């Protein structure tokens, strides 16, 4: 008979000691993250305190931003941040989910892997490259279209533009005029939204592809056994199971869009005036910080820019908290 040699058991005291050391290391690392968060809030609040004391809630509700007269209001920047992010999200999410479904469910392996790699590669491109691409390739096309609109021979378009120009001059707009070109340089809100759409698409697409592939094969086969079509399998077996992960990717993309700085700053136009046309110049909190922080020598001006950073920081925190709540609600009960 062969005898097996048993390894002597690890001493109880050593086991407890190693567990305690490991627990303390993990706790210390977690506390470092919490400490960085608290210190960031404290420093941003300290830097933004002069602006908050000078303007109070008016800083968040008014749109006047004039460093010369030392009047600062961030309403237009907050609106610009939310509008560019949400519109870019609304455009990119259907494209991202469609591409994820194609890669995971339709494309053969020899095609799915290269396409998936190319989509993920979009997330690795530096934002400055996106900005340069937008200025050199997309902006001239938009400018050409806008100039054609201005100089076109259609009397109706010319009359519409004339009426809209009068409204814009008075600081107002309407639904029709919001979609009429207000400039002919290609830059502005629409270009910033378009470039954001391209930048955030890979985040949702990559996460959606991975969670779709994680759907148990039994669910697919059970639906096919019941005579379901490909679309019925996707809509009733795959997407409901993967919806929590997909929503996580959507909210990750939203957080990326809210904080995008350099590419948006290069193309949005840096105008503090309220947005009167989809094609007009605008601003976001991140782009204003990038454009003005280095030149903000006055105490109140610098404090106002720092307060923008604090606002953007808090908005990002709120988005992450909402993400946790939404994902918890959408996660199937069996895998919570």
- Mean pLDDT across residues: 84
What is the approximate shape? flat
Main pleated sheet: 2 strands, antiparallel
N- to C-terminal distance: 49 Å
Number of strands: 2
- Given helix and strand content, the structural type is mainly alpha
CATH-scheme architecture: Orthogonal Bundle
CATH 4th-level superfamily: MetI-like
SSE ordering: HHEEHHHHHHHHHHH
Question: What is the count of DSSP helices, taking H or I runs of 4+ residues?
Answer: 13
Spatial strand sequence of the major β-sheet = 1-2
Pick out the low-confidence regions: none
Q: How many structural domains can be distinguished in the coordinates?
A: 1
Per the CATH scheme, the topology name is: MetI-like fold
How would you explain this protein's 3D organization?
The protein has one domain: MetI-like (MetI-like fold, Orthogonal Bundle). A hairpin with a 4-residue loop joins β1 and β2. It is flat. The chain has 336 residues and is mostly helical. A two-stranded antiparallel sheet has the order 1-2. α9 (217-225) packs antiparallel against α10 (230-259). It is built from 13 helices and 2 strands, in the order ααββααααααααααα. The model has no long low-confidence stretch (mean pLDDT 84). It has helices at residues 12-55, 58-61, 75-106, 109-124, 127-151, 155-169, 175-178, 189-213, 217-225, 230-259, 262-267, 285-292, 299-330, and strands at residues 65-66, 71-72. It is found in: Cell membrane. This is Phosphate transport system permease protein.
């Amino acid at each position: 008979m062969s005898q097996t040699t048993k390894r002597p058991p690890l001493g109880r005291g050593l086991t407890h000691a190693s567990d305690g050391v490991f627990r303390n290391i993990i706790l210390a690392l977690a506390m470092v993250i919490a400490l960085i968060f608290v210190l960031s809030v404290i420093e941003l609040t300290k830097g933004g305190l002069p602006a908050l004391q000078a303007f109070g809630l008016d800083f968040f509700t008014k749109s006047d931003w004039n460093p010369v007269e030392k009047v600062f209001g961030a309403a237009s920047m907050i609106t610009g941040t939310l509008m560019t992010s949400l519109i870019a999200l609304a455009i990119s999410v259907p494209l991202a989910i469609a591409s994820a479904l194609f890669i995971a469910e339709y494309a053969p392996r020899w095609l799915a892997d290269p396409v998936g790699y190319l989509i993920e590669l979009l997330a690795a491109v530096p934002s400055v490259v996106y900005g340069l691409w937008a200025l050199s390739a997309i902006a001239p096309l938009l400018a050409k279209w806008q100039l054609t609109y201005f100089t076109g021979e259609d009397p109706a378009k010319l009359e519409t533009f004339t009426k809209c120009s009068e409204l814009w001059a008075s600081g107002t707009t309407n639904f029709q005029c919001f979609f009429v070109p207000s400039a002919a340089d290609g830059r502005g809100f629409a270009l910033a939204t378009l470039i954001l759409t391209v930048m955030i698409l890979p985040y949702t697409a990559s996460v959606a592809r991975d969670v779709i592939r994680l759907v148990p094969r039994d669910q697919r086969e059970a639906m096919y056994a019941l005579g379901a079509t490909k679309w019925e399998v996707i809509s009733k077996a795959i997407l409901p199971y993967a919806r929590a992960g997909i929503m996580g990717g959507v909210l990750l993309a939203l957080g990326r869009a809210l904080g995008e700085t350099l590419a948006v700053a290069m193309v949005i136009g840096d105008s503090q005036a309220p947005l009167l046309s989809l094609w007009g110049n605008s601003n976001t909190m991140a782009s204003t910080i990038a454009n003005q922080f280095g030149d903000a020598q006055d105490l109140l001006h610098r404090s106002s820019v720092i307060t923008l950073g604090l606002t953007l920081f808090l908005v990002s925190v709120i988005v992450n908290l909402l993400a946790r709540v939404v994902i918890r609600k959408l996660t199937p009960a069996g895998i919570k």
